[in-house]
């Protein structure tokens, strides 16, 4: 009989524009991680088109799962549980993964574990940092979410700050579009910023007086758009690299300041970052520096585990599995699922 120490989870992620499957051994070892990105398709429209995303997931999901099993050199006979993202995300996209996970779990009589997408992002930190254990503070910065989370224990989260408007990644994508960089904007701004001066233009940094851990990025986004419009009206050519670098600095400064405030206030020795924007090179450098100054241990996943993937879902599913979480055949996609809900 298999011991509890020997658990393999097949994980599925389809909440947005990546169809992904992975096999995770004992919560921390990635046996395979297959990602089929739809970025090239959505680029044509300047952003993710939900209807197209759902259809592509349907086309790809079986193939991606087969590849994940093959790469891990296992069959479904070796799998102990199925983990799947069931929210938050695009409802049609989520439904594809959830239906697939339910079908496999039912046919193979395996436990089904629904995973919160953000719990997945946070758990990505456990993959390469084998010694990382809660408690710690995690800054989650993705295309749809900007949360400061106090991770009390595996599966126990307290959201201590959130964005009041745009998510950080959304702001990157909108500014990138305004300066003609295309979708997805985050990686392009990251790259172009290296050629620009981050102090060239002073864009506003929002601090919420009533909540020191909340964020707001619509002000800085509007300031960039106003700056560009102003230049265009005066027929002045602006330096795109300077705009990108100055915008990026305004966003990163606030992310770092709030994260450091949280670490201090909650008396934590560890800080982790997660989500697509966590792969931003300047954010990683700035956070590393700030953590060194404050004597805090800094953790971050490799870029491939920052953007959407199924390995992170498998890791989160493993800890939920150990905690006894099991979902029934009535598991549904929950587009606005709250962190910590079951
Ligand atoms: O986590 P993710 O793959 O999907 C969501 O759950 O939303 O995050 C995607 C977001 C996009 O907004 C993308 O522009 C941003 O992450 N992103 C970046 C970088 N790489 C991806 N933002 C800034 N710098 C990057 N290097
Ligand atoms: Zn994500």
Backbone structural class: alpha/beta
Regarding quaternary structure, what we see is: single chain
One letter per element, helices H and strands E, the order comes to EEEHHEHEHHEEEHHHHEHEHH
Global Rg: 20 Å
CA(first)-CA(last) distance: 30 Å
Instruction: Please state how the strands of the largest beta sheet are arranged side by side.
Output: 3-2-1-4-5
Q: Please report the first level of CATH classification, the CATH class of the largest domain.
A: Alpha Beta
In the residues, how many domains can be counted?
Answer: 2
Ligand species: 5'-O-[(R)-(carboxyoxy)(hydroxy)phosphoryl]adenosine, zinc ion
Describe this protein's structure.
This protein is α/β, with parallel strands linked by helices and 342 residues long. It has 2 domains: 8-124 and 309-322, Nucleotidyltransferase, domain 5 (2-Layer Sandwich); 133-301, Nucleotidyltransferase, domain 5, CATH 3.30.420. 43% of the residues lie in helices and 19% in strands. The protein is built from 12 helices and 10 strands. It has helices at 39-43, 50-71, 91-108, 117-123, 125-128, 168-178, 185-193, 218-233, 240-265, 281-294, 303-306, 311-322; strands spanning 8-13, 18-25, 29-37, 81-87, 112-116, 136-141, 146-153, 156-162, 270-274, 297-299. A 5-stranded mixed beta sheet has the order 3-2-1-4-5, sandwiched between helices. Helix 6 (168-178) packs across helix 7. The chain starts with 7 loop residues before the first strand and ends in a 20-residue tail after the last helix. The model has no long low-confidence stretch (mean pLDDT 95). Bound molecules: 5'-O-[(R)-(carboxyoxy)(hydroxy)phosphoryl]adenosine and zinc ion. Zinc ion binds at residues 117, 121, 142, 275, 308. 5'-O-[(R)-(carboxyoxy)(hydroxy)phosphoryl]adenosine is lined by residues 16, 142-144, 169, 172-173, 184-187, 190, 275-277, 279-280, 307-308.
């Amino acid at each position: 009989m298999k011991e509890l120490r020997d658990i393999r989870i097949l994980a599925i992620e389809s909440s947005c524009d990546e169809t992904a499957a992975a096999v995770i051994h004992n919560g921390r070892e990635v046996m395979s991680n297959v990602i089929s990105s739809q970025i090239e398709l959505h680029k044509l429209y300047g952003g993710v088109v939900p209807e197209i995303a759902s259809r592509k997931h349907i086309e790809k999901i079986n193939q991606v799962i087969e590849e994940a099993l093959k790469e891990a050199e296992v069959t479904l006979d070796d799998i102990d549980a199925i983990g799947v993202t069931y929210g938050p995300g695009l409802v049609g996209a989520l439904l594809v993964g959830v239906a697939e996970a339910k079908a496999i779990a039912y046919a193979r009589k395996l436990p089904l574990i629904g995973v919160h997408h953000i719990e997945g992002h946070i758990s990505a930190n456990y993959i390469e940092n084998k010694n990382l254990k809660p408690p710690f503070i995690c800054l989650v910065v993705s295309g749809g979410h900007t949360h400061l989370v106090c991770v009390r224990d595996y599966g126990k989260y307290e959201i201590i700050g959130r964005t009041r408007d745009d998510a950080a990644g959304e702001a990157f994508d909108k500014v990138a579009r305004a300066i003609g960089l295309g979708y997805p904007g985050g990686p392009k701004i990251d790259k172009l910023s290296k050629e620009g001066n981050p102090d060239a233009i002073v864009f506003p940094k929002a601090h919420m007086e009533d909540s020191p851990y909340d964020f707001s990025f619509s002000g800085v986004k509007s300031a960039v758009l106003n700056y560009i419009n102003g230049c265009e009206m005066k027929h002045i050519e602006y330096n795109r690299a300077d705009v990108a670098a100055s915008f990026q600095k305004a966003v990163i400064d606030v992310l770092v300041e709030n994260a450091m405030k949280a670490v201090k206030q909650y008396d934590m020795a560890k800080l982790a970052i997660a989500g697509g924007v966590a792969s931003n090179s300047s954010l990683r450098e700035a956070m590393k520096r700030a953590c060194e100054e404050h004597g805090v241990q800094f953790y971050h996943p490799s870029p491939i585990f920052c953007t959407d993937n199924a390995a992170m879902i498998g890791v989160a599913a493993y800890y939920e599995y150990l905690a006894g979480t099991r979902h029934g055949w009535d598991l549904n996609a929950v587009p606005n699922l709250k962190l910590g809900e079951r």
